[in-house]
Design brief:
Length: 146
């Protein structure tokens, strides 16, 4: 019997796959637990629609990430921080503050967990990498000063 899986089933397949199983296994285990549905014209159409919808979402995310990378690559981001007489900052400039400044100065919304950099503890210029999507990243320069 052919079924389409609604969820990942260990040792059988991943969500959305069409697999062949024994009829008893399907009727007694998969169907009651809503882990799978029987293959029909309607379920195949729904599966294709779901796949095309997911692909469209991925394509849109990649396009948005490329647009954001074009805006961010090579830019300079100035951050004002207080420091002592020797140039050491009171505290540090973190990825959270960099993400906020990117949104404020460059107009790109970035999650703080996607900003890869060391904490800035003194005045100067530092490199930061922003992971926008799998395989798509942007590099910018963060300048800490008064």
């Amino acid at each position: 019997m052919e079924v389409i899986l609604n969820q990942d089933v260990k040792s059988l397949g991943k969500k959305g796959e069409k697999v062949t199983v024994a009829e008893g296994y399907a009727r007694n285990f998969l169907f009651p637990r809503k882990l799978a549905v029987e293959v029909s014209a309607q379920t195949i159409t729904e599966l294709k629609n779901r796949e095309s919808s997911n692909q469209h979402k991925i394509d849109t995310d990649i396009a948005n990430a490329n647009a954001a990378a074009a805006k961010l690559n090579g830019k300079e981001l100035r951050i004002v921080a207080k420091a002592g007489s020797n140039g050491k900052l009171f505290g540090s400039v973190t990825s959270k503050e960099v993400a906020q400044e990117i949104k404020k100065q460059l107009g790109v919304d970035v999650d703080k967990r996607k900003v890869i950099m060391k904490d800035i503890k003194s005045f100067g210029s530092y490199e930061a990498e922003i992971k926008l999507y799998q395989g798509i990243s942007a590099k910018l320069t963060v300048i800490a000063g008064e």
